[in-house]
């Protein structure tokens, strides 16, 4: 399938798909005409990329994780044990950022509640 079809099937823009290729996340074949040629497996790969981006991971980390993602009967699992600690650290970093944002919201709430109503 061509890039437009992959875009339609995944809901991801053509620009993003080209970016994923630049970041070494997608590896389409090239037709003689120069057009990119994708296969059905690329639909699943793009969906996984989207899920990992939504989880807050960088494309550099996703590049390391994608080859280790395997589908099991009870969901996705990592087949590379060395990534476990990295993912735990990433999760903990996100939790720290969430705590910082919550503290900022509380500080703003205190300022707002102490301000005269306009």
Automatic annotation (TrEMBL):
Keywords: DNA-binding, Repressor, Transcription, Transcription regulation. Residues 1-68 form the HTH merR-type domain. The keyword GTP-binding does not apply. InterPro entries: DNA-bd_dom_put_sf (IPR009061), MerR-type_HTH_dom (IPR000551), MerR_fam (IPR047057). It comes from the Bacteria. The keyword Repressor applies. It holds the Pfam family MerR_1. GO terms for molecular function: DNA binding; DNA-binding transcription factor activity. This is HTH merR-type domain-containing protein. It comes from Chania multitudinisentens RB-25.
